[in-house]
């Protein structure tokens, strides 16, 4: 089989590389020449554990190629994945201009039957627009080209940043929206190597597949906001959210995963997809009330840690030195998009604090938005020197069990505000720390 993946962003690059890993001939296309040049040299545009080695290995094996030339890649490929960005427009709806431009390009160059698959997260109805765009481009080429048969399909991606390779190679399910038996057959053949662990490939109609992606992310975002609400109430009522979490998680209908309270969800997916689904519903005369509340809770939650700090210091924050551990929206990624750290730091700076931050990988990325407004430490301990408080913002493994004796010695005041509940409250109290976390009155 021969496939093309258009767009070498997060999803495209992981998709292309993982298909190559099982022996499929893959060409990854991007219009950004610099990105393609870098990829040829093994320089990746994103940080993802294990991806760099996998790219290099598959390039060396001659089954993973990078190019800016859509024409060659599309000519006789069996499947073309559209994995370009769908940035949110001003009103929150997903902007499809890149997706449709790629569809047009495919129509201009395809020469035989192929399945054109939308992999980017796209609103319900997009595959139909892709089909129309390709048909238009084929028709422009004349009668021979108009006779070329093709199918469109929707194959949403469920991988998580930081665990993308494992998620792709060992998926718990693959969802494919199709409109013909022929497309189903091609997609089943393509995914066969990934289904060895017995997990299913679920075929459905195209609009349902498109909706599945949004519904999945919206449900997960809802779980988090619900738990953040519960955590805030636990604090008020003197309950411990960690115990409540264990108590409810053991009910298999609720489950133990994704019920960790924190400082709000971030990243490029939940915020964008929740917004887009609310917007799609609105445009169609329906009000997604639950999701609007999910968004509201999430916005408030980003301020919770700052509010605790402010309360502790009686609102007198000017001139305080604050250490921040973690900047990325979650561990194992350098992604700073919609990271709660940005909101927290903005508030700290506005209140006149001096911020010294450390993140194991996201500091170069963070510099793009924060510039020199904060100081970047060379390690987690340097960030603590003379600090009046430590804010734990991202739960990187590096921060889980620091030497608290050293931590206490470096800090001016032993105050820890833990936005991810990674420490033991009584242990820290015993060694003289003031400790605040989420959903537990300390
Ligand atoms: C999310 C989904 O989990 C993937 O299935 C989906 O494919 C992806 O979006 C996408 O649409 O591309 P991702 O954004 O990489 O993946 O990150 P998650 O691990 O889901 O975390 C999202 C946010 O939720 C993070 O800010 C994290 O800190 C927060 N979170 C997660 C919590 O606050 N509590 C939890 O219990 C779990």
From TrEMBL:
Pathway: Nucleotide-sugar biosynthesis; UDP-alpha-D-glucuronate biosynthesis; UDP-alpha-D-glucuronate from UDP-alpha-D-glucose: step 1/1. It catalyses: UDP-alpha-D-glucose + 2 NAD(+) + H2O = UDP-alpha-D-glucuronate + 2 NADH + 3 H(+). Keywords: NAD, Oxidoreductase. InterPro entries: 6-PGluconate_DH-like_C_sf, NAD(P)-bd_dom_sf, UDP-Glc/GDP-Man, UDP-Glc/GDP-Man_DH_C, UDP-Glc/GDP-Man_DH_C_sf, UDP-Glc/GDP-Man_DH_dimer, UDP-Glc/GDP-Man_DH_N, UDPglc_DH_bac. Residues 323-425 form the UDP-glucose/GDP-mannose dehydrogenase C-terminal domain. It is an enzyme of class 1 (oxidoreductase). Gene3D superfamilies: Cytochrome c1, transmembrane anchor, C-terminal, NAD(P)-binding Rossmann-like Domain. It holds the Pfam family UDPG_MGDP_dh_C. Its EC number is 1.1.1.22. The keyword Metal-binding does not apply. Belongs to the UDP-glucose/GDP-mannose dehydrogenase family. NCBIfam families: NDP-sugDHase. This is UDP-glucose 6-dehydrogenase. It comes from Hymenobacter frigidus. The lineage of its organism: Bacteria, Pseudomonadati, Bacteroidota, Cytophagia, Cytophagales.
